[in-house]
From TrEMBL:
<protein>
    <recommendedName>
        <fullName>alpha-glucosidase</fullName>
        <ecNumber>3.2.1.20</ecNumber>
    </recommendedName>
</protein>
<feature type="signal peptide">
    <location>
        <begin position="1"/>
        <end position="22"/>
    </location>
</feature>
<dbReference type="InterPro" id="IPR045857">
    <property type="entry name" value="O16G_dom_2"/>
</dbReference>
<dbReference type="InterPro" id="IPR006047">
    <property type="entry name" value="GH13_cat_dom"/>
</dbReference>
<feature type="domain" description="Glycosyl hydrolase family 13 catalytic">
    <location>
        <begin position="34"/>
        <end position="431"/>
    </location>
</feature>
<keyword id="KW-0325">Glycoprotein</keyword>
<keyword id="KW-0732">Signal</keyword>
<dbReference type="InterPro" id="IPR017853">
    <property type="entry name" value="GH"/>
</dbReference>
<dbReference type="GO" id="GO:0005975">
    <property type="term" value="P:carbohydrate metabolic process"/>
</dbReference>
<dbReference type="Pfam" id="PF00128">
    <property type="entry name" value="Alpha-amylase"/>
</dbReference>
<keyword id="KW-0378">Hydrolase</keyword>
<comment type="similarity">
    <text>Belongs to the glycosyl hydrolase 13 family.</text>
</comment>
<keyword id="KW-0326">Glycosidase</keyword>
<dbReference type="GO" id="GO:0004558">
    <property type="term" value="F:alpha-1,4-glucosidase activity"/>
</dbReference>
Amino acid sequence: MHGVSKLLALCSLLALALPALAEVGWWRTAQFYQIYPRSFKDSDGDGVGDLNGITQQLPYLKEIGVTATWLSPIFTSPMADFGYDVANFFEIDSTFGTMEDFEALLQRAQQLGIKIILDFVPNHSSDECEWFKRSAAGDEEYKDFYVWHTGKVVNGIREPPNNWISVFRGSQWTWNDERQAYYLHQFHHKQPDFNYRNPKVIEAMKDVLRFWLRKGVYGFRVDAVPHVYEVEADENGDFPDEPRNEWNNDPEDYGYLDHIYTTHQPETIELVYIFREIMEEIDAELGGDDRVLLTEAYGPLDVLMQYYGNETARGSQIPFNFELLSNLNNNSNAYHYSELIHNWLDKMPEGQVANWVLGNHDQSRIGSRLGADRIDAINMMLLTLPGISVTYQGEELGMTDVFISWEDTVDPQACQSNEEEFAHLSRDPVRTPFQWSDEANAGFTSGPNTWLPVATDFNLVNVKRERSIPLSHLNIYKQLRSLRDEPTLKQGDVDVTAISPNVLAIKRSLSGYSSYITVINVSDDVETVSLDSVFPLLSTKLRYVVVSDKSIRRTNDETFANSVLLLPKEAVVLSTI
Ligand code: GLC
Ligand code: MG
């Protein structure tokens, strides 16, 4: 064989075995990190985090190996839902800084090789948005931008058009005097829903996407996707009532109704495909790395899988996988863990990539939800499963929910309830200032106040201290992150199994490379497991690669594969030798 063609043959053989990552998309093995900008780092002393604060701390993101970070909304907003009520989709809110600050952030991020992803809120705007004001005034261009209805009159009294209930309690319909009609809002009354049956709305939102992509962001986390469409109105312009959920007896509560007409309408999936086309349009226009969509939808798996796309259309590369976040609890055994992981892996369409979300700004933190003694185990699972990991700020430190009194509560989801109910509704406990050091206010701000109280344990749980402790949550996270650069973890196969109710094992393997096995004891018992009886291992001995402070073994210690000892709640990563 000719020398060159020999080489080519060899290359194609290698390529078959190990496709170069550049060819398959940077996001396929990425570490995503969510920043909640109000609470990450305050640069100007007003007690609220800002863009310059994020820019200052980008080296920290580099330190923990983040590929891309998605920022909760930074756009002009009256902050009724802390930025998820956008008044101008093309401007930066002055609380966070200026457009120049944002451009500086993008530039610094690019220098460091970190991609910036923005939050895109398609379902609604603020009622203070110019588009809504014009709609209320009946302006020809904007009058059908939102969902309006004159309501009905019962016994001479005006009532909302139907029984729909808002996510934040009470009717989804609020009266507007100027327009003399009700407008629909699936969330807060200051968050009127767009009317996606009006093609002009879709065009307006495409322009929002183009605007930020051309500035240099690499995509969007798309907010509240299942809520974007409501069922189409009938010939009289009316919408049907939603049926009752018999298990719920509070007529103001969102759970009182079964949301068959206001969530997961089929048009929503099509809309995500349309948004993906804009990512590809800008890929073609600007070149460079792929632009991505991360879609936020809680719902049935068969619906979520459709977000990936179908034979004729591409969809979201990353339909958030909330299986573990939504379904694990303190009492879950290893079978539950295994089943939830398999649910996604087994249902995912061919050629797509899994993602694993363990926290966000709406959900109780890992340490509070699953136990502070499981933090390292959960991070080991997150970072050794195949595909994309998504970490919410502070989870790498093991931050836990902070108790916030009714008086100090600011989250609208809690404030619209009452003193008895607010605690299980409030999202404030997971949104408290990030803990940088043991200085005043955890080094979050130089000012005297913070918009939410700082956790009382910040002396122990902070970046500065955890950097200096070899087996801190932070250092374990960093070790796991480095391990993800191994070809086996990037591209290897996965085998997930519960060895017993107490022990979960995740094996990653790639021909020609060491295999890695994450073993997690979810229980309070001491366990001894035989790994070579559940996995074909090709090695009788295993080496400890990552241990936690619960381990009596150290990194590089060896053990026989047929007898791996695990202390209560211990988790380790082992490799074949
Ligand atoms: C999403 C956001 C949440 C917000 C809601 C309304 O669920 O994550 O924080 O309140 O949408 O925009
Ligand atoms: Mg500030």
